[in-house]
Amino acid sequence: MKTSEFIAKKAVKNIEYVSFTWQTPSNIALVKYWGKTNPQIPKNASISFTLNNCHTITTIDFKRKHNAEIVSESDKSVAFNLFFEGKKKEEFKPKIAEFFKRIQAYCPYIFDYEMTIKSENSFPHSSGIASSASGLSAIAMCLMSLEKQLHSDLSEEFINKKASFLARLGSGSASRSIEGPLVVWGKHAAVEESSDLFGVKFPYKVAPVFNNYQDAILLVDKGEKQVSSTVGHNLMNNHPYADARFKDANENLEKMATILQKGDLKAFVSLVESEALTLHAMMMASSPYFILMKPNTLKIINKIWEYRAENDSNICFTLDAGANVHVLYPENEKKSVNTFIEKELAVFCQNKQYILDNAGLGAIEK
Ligand code: PMV
Description:
Layout lengths: L16 E15 L4 E2 L3 E2 L3 E19 L14 E6 L2 E2 L4 H11 L9 E9 L10 H20 L4 H15 L11 E4 L13 E3 L12 E5 L10 H6 L7 H21 L2 H20 L10 H17 L4 E4 L5 E5 L4 H12 L8 E5 L5 E2 L1
Parallel strand pairs: 5-7
Antiparallel strand pairs: 1-4, 1-14, 2-3, 4-7, 4-8, 5-6, 8-9, 10-12, 10-13, 11-12
Helix pairs in contact: 2-3, 5-6
Bound molecules: (3R)-3-hydroxy-3-methyl-5-(phosphonooxy)pentanoic acid.
């Protein structure tokens, strides 16, 4: 699909007031996206598990502006109020205003409405869990619900594609939060229909061992990120290892596609961990360099390796752009690994906090 196909046509209906609520999840990448060109085009393809329990619920009330028709082109602005967990949040507005600016050409109807956005996360705010993926995908789904009412002939397939396309313009990884349980974003010859513009569901049959895969998120450091992902992505420009990394990541995506279909857990474990460490190695080798792992991140990783060796387990870890550890394991190890986490890993988390999650199916209308 071309970018121009996402430009909404003129509305066929007038709607005065309408409200939609969507729940959309966070996701965890197995093969990571790190490095992009404008406008949010990834330097390599990535694949993630969509999560289930870590999600955002967002309601948008759309109230039609009076005299919207007579506002001149130059006076146009997007009008919205923002509430997060019941409180008005002026400090979150610039990011959302920037998002609306990036998508306005594709959703010109947003100028016709005054929007009240009410949002809450299922996970603690500033837990170090990126809320941009779930937050922006939820807004994108609410906009698509409005677009569907204004146009009435949109297919579900188009709605999901365009929601992913819009969410991507806010935060790249958000494009992978519309569907599940496995989503690929970035054009890759090994994945049919894959695109740089939006995420697609992994289109091949996955081995049963990857069904309902478990992800325990260990909250090692809940502080503000030292380096925003925007800055991090930009540091991949002029990075000495960038070209090798993008090539390696695309090769890893192809390997991962085979692993998922064959059910090769040993290969899965080593590829997922290698991807996580390579992402952090890129950060350590950039200029300026930075380290997002904390001492407890490494303690947890070593404990996981010990546990895996001693129990012939297929537990593994991955990392986002932060210190928290995502512990991944097949459903048949849930009982034993959950006990291990509670007994041996929780001590390394802030206030012993962790979240048990599993692969989910994506956006749900509420
Ligand atoms: O979506 P962004 O721009 O916040 O980038 C996220 C990048 C990683 O989480 C580190 C990797 C990924 O693919 O999700």
